[in-house]
Amino acid sequence: MNSTERRALAGLASLYVFRMLGLFMVLPVLSLYGADYQGSTPALLGLALGAYGLSQALLQIPLGVLSDRWGRKPVIFVGLLVFAFGSVVAALTDSVYGLIAGRILQGAGAIAAATMALAADLTRDENRGKAMAVIGASIGVAFVLAVVLGPLVAGFGGLSAIFWLTALLALLGILLVWRLVPNPPVAERRGPQRGDFSRLLAQGDVWRLVCGVFFLHLLLTMMFVPLPLLLVDQLHLPSDQHWKLYGPLMLGAFIFMVPLMRMAEKRHKVPAAMRLALLGLIFGGVALMPQVHGAWVIVCLGVFFLAFNLLEALLPAQLTRVAPAECRGAATGLYATLQFLGAFAGGSLGGVVYGSGGAGTVATLALGVLVLWSLAWWQMRGTRVPLASV
Fold it and tell me: Is the pLDDT of residue 160 over 90?
């Protein structure tokens, strides 16, 4: 990579870390601290957990297309301001309905598609895979930091402290993009044409990848409805000490993920690595089963986090290879839409199911989702454009 590409990648990867912390930091603590909000129930807390994903899902494609026409940076700046405003709303409320409203406003700052497309604009074809892998890995880094920082920050000042920190990070993100990230070539902004969309939507591998990120975030958000409570009840780990478990698990998962990703790239085995990671996600559901106790819960969570981080890095890199360059913003918009729609569905379903049947029922549902994902992956294997090899 040249100096411009490295500069752009450093800025955008850092922006992703800042941005995704706002989504991930509440995951390990909301079901614990949200019980103190007026009117809270398991179903409403699950909705609050996933509400961010609903507005994200609704706005990713429109804002991705808008970034193709008006430019990436204006869309990113406005999205970060909206995200910061939603964070302030969530920080000031003491009602579960205010919490849900704040989370919806946070999600309305839907810049994931524009950010991913900007990264593609600023890198050459031969380096684009590396760039997308770094950005995908940065989401994994954000997840690692979030599950450690979330319990620590909440232990200091509750959920409000998390939302105030999230607002500050959003404002820092604006400064970061303005000062560090170069402007993309004007030629990249002509906007998608009708034929471009047709080619995009005709590719089975595009649908494999976007459906994959839907199921991935559905499982993650669903798991984190009962998981913090299980750590308190089964492992007798106080809520403000959860970072001591998440930290080593996530660090270990990330350390093992990097060589696995590089090996898959060098040996042109990315699709096989994805299938292996899909199998690893099974352990997330197993960890929630009532029959699993003690150290086995920790082992299962470690395997799940490793599989999650691997898929989070590989999926977006593959998408930018199979999508037509002329509508890359729309493609990443579709990807981000399904990503956050999965978060909404996972939080909402997890809250309802946990409230009615407990953690064991959530585990059963999670395993059923994995079966459905596997069937969808297999059915979409026939495509006019083969899955790109790294």
Answer: yes
| C-alpha dihedral sign at 218, 223, 226, 232 | negative
CA distance 225 to 45: 8
DSSP-assigned states of every residue in 95-145: BHHHHHHHHHHHHHS--HHHHHHHHHHTS-HHHHHHHHHHHHHHHHHHHHH
* φ, ψ of residue 66 in degrees (nearest 5): -60, -35
Contact of 112 with 336, CB cutoff 8 Å: yes
Report how far apart, in Å, the C-alpha atoms of 287 and of each of 80, 175, 363 are. Answer: 35, 41, 8
Higher pLDDT, 362 or 234: 362
Instruction: For CA atoms 345, 281, 248, 16, give the dihedral sign.
Output: negative
| DSSP helix/strand/coil, 38 | strand
Average pLDDT for 139-155: 83
Please state, as a whole number, how many other Cβ atoms lie within 10 Å of the Cβ of residue 207. 19
What count of other Cβ atoms lies within 10 Å of the Cβ of residue 277? 26
Mean residue pLDDT across the chain: 82
Place of tokens 């989401």: 139
Phi, psi of 38 (to 5 degrees): -60, 130
The residue extents of the domains of the chain are 3-188+203-379
Dihedral angle sign, alpha carbons of residues 145, 214, 51, 83: positive
CATH class of the region 3-188+203-379: mainly alpha
Could you give the CA distance from residue 91 to residue 162 in angstroms, rounded to a whole number?
8
Q: How many helices (H) and strands (E) does the chain have?
A: 16, 0
Confidence tier at 193 by pLDDT (50, 70, 90): low
Contacts of 1 (CB under 8 A, 6+ apart): 9, 123, 127, 130, 131
- Give me the DSSP letters along 212-235: HHHHHHHHHHHHTTTHHHHHHHTS
Map residue 352 onto helix, strand or coil: helix
pTM for this prediction: 0.76
- Beta-bridge mates of residue 95: 38
